[in-house]
Write the structure tokens for this entry.
Amino acid sequence: MAIVVDIDVMLARRKMAVGTLAELVGITPANLSVLKNGRAKAVRFTTLNALCEALQCQPGDILRWEPDSYEQEQPSSSPAKISTGRNE
């Protein structure tokens, strides 16, 4: 997946345990682990807000985008020709 979750980085910076963060956010440690390990398919904005509040950070501090290796290996397709409506 191209979205990388850096909760573990923020936990280390804040010297906070996973259980403590889960309690502050109001989710189970198991669900936080799913999110932390990048196995989550979605995250609610309310959860993201609670994570940012508990960790005193911005969403971009815990979520980032990296292109998939498959996307990097594919040649870019040539852009489609745009018609101006004139005889060309």
